[in-house]
Amino acid sequence: MVRRVAIIGAGACGLVSIKCCLEEGLEPTCFERSEDIGGLWRYTDSTDGGRVTVYRSVITNTSKEMSCFSDFPFPEDFPNYLPHSLLLEYFRMYARHFDLLQHIRFKTTAVSVRKRPDFAASGQWEVITETNGIQESHVFDAVMVCTGHYQEPYLPLASFPGIETCFKGRYLHSQKYKDAEAFRGKRVLVVGIGNTGGDLSVELSRVAAKVFLSTRSSTWLFNRVSDRGFPLDMVNTTRFKRFLDWLLPSALMKWIMFRKCNSWFNHANYGLASTKSSYFKIIINEELPFCLLSGTVVLKPNVKEFTESSAVFEDGTTEENIDVVLFATGYIFPFPFLEESVRSLFDNNRSLYKCIFPPQLEKPTLAIIGFVQLTGSVMVGSEMQARWVTGIFAGWNKLPPASRMMADVSKEQPPVKRNPSERKNLKLNFISYTDEIASCAGVKPSLLRLLLTDPRLALAIFFGPCTPYQYRLVGRGKWSGAREAILTQWQRTLKPLRTRVVDDSSDSFSGWCWRCLLALPAALMAGFLFSKYPRMGWSSQAG
């Protein structure tokens, strides 16, 4: 029986892991190398110590209703998309409310996590920590690694001939970027067009003399402000749309997505993407199209090589007088504190059972929390992982035999290895993955049962956004406020916008209700199919 659990990292994943341990009667001890909670989201001006944080101007890409912990909604007056300061404030509120801080040892680094000699029988781990230069050894029954994705910058200098030997300007990874002031008046080349590369290009365009954005892949842009002004993820991340994804041919769904994106602006005209692209990224950025349209950002293909002051691109064009190269090329995940025999068991999250457990271990007492890329909020997925894992540690949930876990892992492995920074193979559909883990934990709601017992709630769950509260309706950890939270989620979305109220007699809410009633047969069919085929495909999405 697991009792004592080591948790490494006090960011979002670490905090929710502490809470889940406490709910299951376990004894968590969290080791946090910095002096405070928040992890990535606790912004600091300093880049010393190798700690990765967000940049000063960052705003979340997922909305508050889709990102909150499942039994702790954001305050209703918080904006829908949050700056890092408000997200950190939310973490502090969560930690205070559930009395989590007393279980965290700050300024304590996990130096080593090794299996005990009797691991095959006990499943125990020896954890070496260091505080103020003094090392200490501990024995734990289980370990939850909560260090997340953003551990070590991926800087592929070997792929860019001349950057180290010829180029006289400055180059750096986006990890070291804090704000745009240091780039004022410079000619800047940003390499990589993920969410970070897009954001930084836009911000730099306001102060730099010129910004060039280099990409080697097609990229489709989405706007956080979606239909009728609602948050994108609340409109798009619904069980109804997931049902259509499962029901209709993938080529048709891709065509619909391309058409929707091009109704905003034609991506081919901007050099971003073509409907014929086989591999593509999806990023969230409202301002980049205008920057391209106004010429403050210039899109370029992949860099072929660097000279003393210029960048030569694969299409044969050259941009002269480049002052700074900013690599937005992602991160790798070394987990340096894990012993080599354990670390070698996985090189990405698909090497783990359900992206959590190394299946080769004799005892399932090591869990990697938050090591997953989803099409929605990783915070929500991480909480579901922690709930399931702590249920396993406490003996309520069971894992299948190792042979079945290995077979599952083999089935989910991507067919071709990609560049470490291109985590297409790590991005999973939010609803499919979260439902999968919720089913394992026994907390996935039954749509068919709800249609028979609480049709209003069932319709809100099926046609409305797949908010985290849905996973608190049944099973262990059931929350009495979950139903009310679901039925009032749109009110909390609109609340921070009601700072100036205007008269609008066209109430669209009643129209939405009528549409839901008309679509009741589709909901009944979906409920039956979801109960008959619970996985509905555990599919990836390019990104």
Automatic annotation (TrEMBL):
The keyword Nucleotide-binding does not apply. It catalyses: trimethylamine + NADPH + O2 = trimethylamine N-oxide + NADP(+) + H2O; hypotaurine + NADPH + O2 + H(+) = taurine + NADP(+) + H2O; hypotaurine + NADH + O2 + H(+) = taurine + NAD(+) + H2O; N,N-dimethylaniline + NADPH + O2 + H(+) = N,N-dimethylaniline N-oxide + NADP(+) + H2O. GO terms for cellular component: endoplasmic reticulum membrane. Keywords: Endoplasmic reticulum, FAD, Flavoprotein, Membrane, Monooxygenase, NADP, Oxidoreductase, Transmembrane, Transmembrane helix. It is found in: Endoplasmic reticulum membrane. Its EC number is 1.14.13.148, 1.14.13.8. It is a single-pass membrane protein. Its cofactor is FAD. One of its GO terms (molecular function) is N,N-dimethylaniline monooxygenase activity. Its main location: endoplasmic reticulum. It is an enzyme of class 1 (oxidoreductase). Broad spectrum monooxygenase that catalyzes the oxygenation of a wide variety of nitrogen- and sulfur-containing compounds including xenobiotics. Catalyzes the S-oxygenation of hypotaurine to produce taurine, an organic osmolyte involved in cell volume regulation as well as a variety of cytoprotective and developmental processes. PANTHER family: DIMETHYLANILINE MONOOXYGENASE. Belongs to the FMO family. This is Flavin-containing monooxygenase 1. It comes from Caloenas nicobarica (Nicobar pigeon). The gene is Fmo4.
